[in-house]
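Quick note —
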Amino acid sequence: GLSQYSSDPRTEWDLSAYSTREQVLEAVRNLRYKGGNTFTGLALTHVLEQNLKPDAGARLEAEKLVILLTDGKSQDDANLAAQTLKNLGIEIFAIGVKNADEAELRQVASEPLELTVYNVLDFPLLSSLVGKLTRVLCTRIKERSHKETAGSAVKDTPVNTGPQLSPTDLKISAVTSKSMHLAWSPPLKPPKKYRVVYYPSKGGTPKEVVLEGAVSSLQLSNLTSHTEYLVSVIPVYDTAVGDGLRGVTSTLPLSSPRSLRVSELSHNSLRLSWKAAQGATHYLVLCSAAPDGAED
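Predicted structure written out below.
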């Protein structure tokens, strides 16, 4: 599967889209480059929520590997998102090109770093990594699979992620200019915990709150006014991640001053008055001369 990202991540194809090597190579040849920002944390969250799900082709019993390819320093918190994936047993390989931040690559990648972190000076040099990376990936999959099947301890978590593992009925209420309240109906099988991820839809640093599985509501505060927010509630189990709930809501605009009046004009002064804006602590008053021909 492959997702491409800048400000907003985009799934190019899911794990279940192609079944032969030739089909994958043809899809790569037809891939169109997506320029823009570098919101790596948002991209990793997208991969977890959208691409590593059974309905996108992810098999519950299969090893989960994410290969991150980036040519810049992340503009949001990539480490927080990466840690969430690693806590769920997902292994991350980090490959940097050109202006990638080596320290950030090492922070995001899984241990041991000598096998999971790579950095090259330019895109054509990526071809030099293919052989080694292929061998490392295949070896890691075999090692991890062997560890988890040793002693016939095969994971028996059901593939079904319907109502048994997934919360329903996300309700967003009590919306103000800087807060909102979330509530949902828990799944039949209570999760170990919930991850609640929220961020402005037009790009911004994703923030995350982790809740105990017995909790099914949350108050989000310190939000930006008059901003559309995307919200995801993801149930996390010991060996699986259930389908998440998603919602979108805009915070209210801040109240504005009203009824501006001008009085007491003289050759070099005037008095302004207005009805107060609720909650305002200061006012900024800007004054400039009207251009020639415009009304003063």
